[in-house]
């Protein structure tokens, strides 16, 4: 569903500066780095981004929440590309294309359903029951939950489940657990009249403590 233009203007001036603090790290988000086609000024625009497969190769799809008439997209097209900050890394953008909703759905079908689930959702599903059962994060009972989280993250990245990956996952969870992110999401629900979201802070806190107790520093 395309959101109203008035909300886009509000986000540009009010919520985007907040979102830029964590969008380059948080799951399902990214920051588009582009240069004004007329001003020559450098801009950083937070967006919703997802893994995709384009012509058999890994790619990234960006959700056009407010439609294709976006300055950041016009700037990328005018320059022939730009950069994206995602998952803590900077990657190049070349020849951006706008596709229909059906075409975008096909691009996302290359991944198994479990890999398309957001990391935060997996943390909630895995850590939530442990938290409800009052399992201490550093206890032996928490070990299977931590193993499930790190194994899922390893499958997403296609990497071995080793100490380096576990440290990276811990850093990701700590970035996602920034309280400014939850305040931003709460603000969006107020603006749009959406139901209040469930706080993920407790499960993220639990997961960070459980993982931190096992990851070698």
Give a description of the structure:
This protein is an alpha+beta fold and 217 residues long. It has two domains: 5-111, Pnp Oxidase, Chain A (Roll), CATH 2.30.110; 114-212, no CATH class. Helix content is 48%, strand content 18%. The chain has helices at residues 5-19, 71-79, 101-107, 113-116, 119-132, 143-157, 163-176, 179-192, 201-212, and strands at 29-35, 42-54, 57-62, 81-86, 89-94. It has a five-stranded antiparallel beta sheet with strand order 3-2-1-4-5.
Q: Please summarize the sheet with the most strands.
A: 5 strands, antiparallel
Instruction: Give the fraction of residues assigned to helices.
Output: 40-55%
Query: What is the CATH top level name of the largest domain?
Result: Mainly Beta
SSE string? HEEEHEEHHHHHHH
Q: Please report which band the strand proportion falls in: under 5%, 5-15%, 15-25%, 25-35%, 35-45% or over 45%.
A: 15-25%
Count of extended strands? 5
Looking at CATH, which topology of the largest domain would you report?
Pnp Oxidase, Chain A
* End-to-end separation: 44 Å
Detail the poorly predicted runs.
Answer: 1-5, 109-117
**SS field, number of helical segments:** 9
Overall pLDDT score: 79
Strand order of the largest sheet: 3-2-1-4-5
Give the class from helix and strand content and strand pairing: alpha+beta
Tell me which CATH architecture of the largest domain applies here: Roll
Please state the CA-atom Rg, rounded to the nearest Å. Answer: 19 Å
